[in-house]
């Protein structure tokens, strides 16, 4: 019987397994993950789940009987240590398994601070898994002092969640502004004032020199010469694609595991999807870290394993929840040369439209579902409204 | 546990028991009801969990939020008076016997 083995039981891995069955595949499906929990959603980890507003059961992507009912052999707390492509086998800790098709859905790993600046002190955390949250939650409480390093979406979400739990939060961002890598100055400005109003201390253009403490982290020395007392630190400075296994197997790796338009790696029987995979788009190798992309790409790979021969075409979108503000992003803004702002119908709602010349690339919609949904449809259809119409709120 | 019945766009009925407190979207995913996509897993950010809810239960499924209503104006299948984002509707005892119709497109 044909056997599809999926390494990584996260968002992409679980979507892929479910899609194989959804498409009628009746061979063997094995889904192997090194975490203890069945596949779950990560977005709430930096939002409602961090402050106890959601229970672990509601994080699960599928119900408890889902995998067994569909004959998906789900193996948890199991790490794949080696791939032997010449024999079409993989090695787990205690056994080896044969595959016909192998999928790498290994996700990404948070970047840690180097040990020589205090990165390995106790109470210095990263945030990727339920296990990470379990380590952080005992430290959350009124009057505690947290330092967040990195002003990307995850850092800002964590800052919002913690400060809503009464933690006094300082966030430092090395670049001149928060969200500098991912959004326009206008969007940064919106979130800067939101956080400032809610009592988060945002420090931009300032780096961390070192974390200090004997038994655990107690102080942080910053590049502006200041030194602040802290109870715990969360590092949100980005992730690296988990490519160790792929590299050891000799697969092509460049900003992630290289896949072609179908999702195939440089080895014919091995595929990859999700945060770990880089694909060619508009002439460059792109890697997208988002749930919708992980689902779409995984489902495309599932179809291609079964012979669909369908190119993957990303329709990127993303969201972020901070305090009572919902940001929805349609498209990818890389290469923009102009931003057009537009007021929404409701107070406090607005959107920023990224153009390259006359071409609409992306939109950040802030508490503005109407702008988001309009933009998403335009971008998915490859259409661009004129920048003037955007500013006037007119669309064709 | 209350029983609710999903009816797919093709007219196929799936009667399922649903755990109190979970969202209708979560129940649909758990039972693999085709046609509920739920790309954002319940964050009210994607509108791919759009469903038509039995009007007889309109008073029992909770009020529609402003953001939800704005999203519903742009769904892939037409919005109707009984349209909701199924991730925003929670299962309660009073919903026993309710039918939920799934649109043709998300
Ligand atoms: C805190 C946080 C908040 C986020 N918020 C959002 C959001 O609001 N919106 C959004 O769209 N996206 C968000 N994301 C991103 C989103 O969660 C990821 O893009 C998505 O989970 C990627 O899915 P994946 O399957 O590629 O990787 P993952 O979900 O990371 O799954 C990979 C799995 O593979 C396992 N694995 C790796 N190597 C091995 C091995 N050798 N053997 C066995 N198992 C292995 C890993 O442990 C992991 O469980 C967020 C992420 C985080 C961490
Ligand atoms: S699941 Fe995304 S809006 Fe309901």
From TrEMBL, chain A:
<keyword id="KW-0560">Oxidoreductase</keyword>
<dbReference type="InterPro" id="IPR036188">
    <property type="entry name" value="FAD/NAD-bd_sf"/>
</dbReference>
<dbReference type="GO" id="GO:0005737">
    <property type="term" value="C:cytoplasm"/>
</dbReference>
<keyword id="KW-0285">Flavoprotein</keyword>
<dbReference type="GO" id="GO:0016651">
    <property type="term" value="F:oxidoreductase activity, acting on NAD(P)H"/>
</dbReference>
<dbReference type="InterPro" id="IPR028202">
    <property type="entry name" value="Reductase_C"/>
</dbReference>
<protein>
    <submittedName>
        <fullName>NAD(P)-binding protein</fullName>
    </submittedName>
</protein>
<dbReference type="InterPro" id="IPR023753">
    <property type="entry name" value="FAD/NAD-binding_dom"/>
</dbReference>
<dbReference type="Pfam" id="PF07992">
    <property type="entry name" value="Pyr_redox_2"/>
</dbReference>
<dbReference type="Pfam" id="PF14759">
    <property type="entry name" value="Reductase_C"/>
</dbReference>
<dbReference type="InterPro" id="IPR016156">
    <property type="entry name" value="FAD/NAD-linked_Rdtase_dimer_sf"/>
</dbReference>
<dbReference type="InterPro" id="IPR050446">
    <property type="entry name" value="FAD-oxidoreductase/Apoptosis"/>
</dbReference>
<feature type="domain" description="Reductase C-terminal">
    <location>
        <begin position="317"/>
        <end position="393"/>
    </location>
</feature>
<keyword id="KW-0274">FAD</keyword>
<feature type="domain" description="FAD/NAD(P)-binding">
    <location>
        <begin position="3"/>
        <end position="298"/>
    </location>
</feature>
Automatic annotation (TrEMBL), chain B:
<protein>
    <submittedName>
        <fullName>2Fe-2S iron-sulfur cluster binding domain-containing protein</fullName>
    </submittedName>
</protein>
<dbReference type="GO" id="GO:0051537">
    <property type="term" value="F:2 iron, 2 sulfur cluster binding"/>
</dbReference>
<dbReference type="GO" id="GO:0005829">
    <property type="term" value="C:cytosol"/>
</dbReference>
<comment type="similarity">
    <text>Belongs to the adrenodoxin/putidaredoxin family.</text>
</comment>
<feature type="domain" description="2Fe-2S ferredoxin-type">
    <location>
        <begin position="2"/>
        <end position="106"/>
    </location>
</feature>
<dbReference type="InterPro" id="IPR001041">
    <property type="entry name" value="2Fe-2S_ferredoxin-type"/>
</dbReference>
<dbReference type="GO" id="GO:0009055">
    <property type="term" value="F:electron transfer activity"/>
</dbReference>
<dbReference type="InterPro" id="IPR018298">
    <property type="entry name" value="Adrenodoxin_Fe-S_BS"/>
</dbReference>
<dbReference type="InterPro" id="IPR012675">
    <property type="entry name" value="Beta-grasp_dom_sf"/>
</dbReference>
<keyword id="KW-0408">Iron</keyword>
<keyword id="KW-0479">Metal-binding</keyword>
<keyword id="KW-0411">Iron-sulfur</keyword>
<dbReference type="InterPro" id="IPR001055">
    <property type="entry name" value="Adrenodoxin-like"/>
</dbReference>
<keyword id="KW-0001">2Fe-2S</keyword>
<dbReference type="GO" id="GO:0046872">
    <property type="term" value="F:metal ion binding"/>
</dbReference>
<dbReference type="GO" id="GO:0140647">
    <property type="term" value="P:P450-containing electron transport chain"/>
</dbReference>
<dbReference type="InterPro" id="IPR036010">
    <property type="entry name" value="2Fe-2S_ferredoxin-like_sf"/>
</dbReference>
<dbReference type="Pfam" id="PF00111">
    <property type="entry name" value="Fer2"/>
</dbReference>
């Amino acid at each position: 019987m044909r056997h599809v083995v999926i390494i990584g039981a996260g968002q992409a891995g679980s979507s892929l397994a479910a899609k194989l069955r959804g498409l009628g595949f009746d061979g063997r499906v094995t889904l192997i993950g090194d975490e203890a929990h069945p596949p779950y959603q990560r977005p709430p980890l930096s939002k409602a789940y961090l402050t106890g507003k959601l229970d672990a059961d509601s994080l699960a992507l599928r119900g408890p009987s889902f995998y067994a009912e569909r004959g998906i052999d789900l193996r948890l707390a199991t790490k794949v240590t080696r791939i032997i492509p010449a024999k079409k086998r993989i090695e787990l800790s205690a056994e080896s398994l044969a595959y016909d098709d192998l999928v790498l859905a290994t996700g990404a790993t948070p970047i840690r601070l180097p040990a020589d600046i205090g990165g390995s002190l106790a109470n210095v955390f990263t945030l990727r898994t339920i296990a990470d949250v379990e380590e952080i939650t005992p430290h959350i409480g009124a009057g505690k002092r947290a330092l967040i390093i990195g002003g990307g979406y995850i850092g800002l979400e964590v800052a919002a969640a913690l400060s809503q739990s009464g933690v006094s939060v300082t966030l430092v961002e090395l670049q001149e502004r928060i969200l500098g890598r991912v959004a326009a100055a206008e969007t940064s400005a919106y979130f800067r004032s939101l956080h400032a109003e809610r009592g988060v201390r945002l420090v931009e253009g300032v780096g961390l020199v070192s974390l200090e403490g004997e038994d655990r982290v107690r102080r942080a020395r910053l590049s502006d010469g200041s030194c602040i007392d802290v109870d715990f630190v969360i590092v949100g400075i980005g992730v690296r694609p988990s490519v160790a296994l792929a590299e050891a197997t000799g697969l092509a790796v460049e900003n992630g595991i290289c896949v072609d338009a179908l999702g195939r790696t440089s080895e014919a029987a091995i595929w990859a999807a999700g945060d770990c995979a880089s694909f060619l788009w508009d002439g460059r190798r792109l890697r997208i870290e988002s749930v919708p992309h992980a689902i779409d790409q995984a489902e495309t790979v599932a179809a291609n394993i079964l012979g669909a021969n369908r190119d993957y075409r990303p329709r990127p979108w993303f969201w972020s929840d901070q305090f009572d503000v919902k940001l929805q992003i349609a498209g990818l803004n890389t290469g923009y040369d102009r931003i057009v702002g537009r007021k929404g119908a409701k107070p406090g709602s607005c959107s920023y439209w990224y153009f390259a010349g006359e071409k609409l690339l992306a939109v950040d919609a802030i508490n503005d579902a109407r702008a988001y949904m309009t933009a998403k449809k335009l971008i998915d259809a490859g259409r661009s409204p004129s920048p003037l119409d955007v500013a006037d709120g007119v669309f064709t | 546990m209350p029983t609710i019945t999903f009816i797919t766009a093709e007219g196929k009925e799936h009667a399922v028991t649903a755990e109190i407190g979970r969202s209708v979207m979560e129940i649909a995913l758990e039972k693999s009801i085709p046609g509920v996509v739920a790309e954002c897993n319940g964050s009210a950010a994607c509108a791919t969990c759009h469903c038509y809810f039995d009007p007889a239960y309109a008073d029992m499924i909770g009020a529609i939020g402003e953001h939800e209503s704005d999203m519903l104006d742009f769904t892939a299948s037409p919005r109707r008076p009984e349209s909701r984002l199924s991730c925003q509707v929670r299962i309660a005892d009073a919903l026993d016997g309710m039918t939920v119709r799934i649109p043709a497109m998300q």
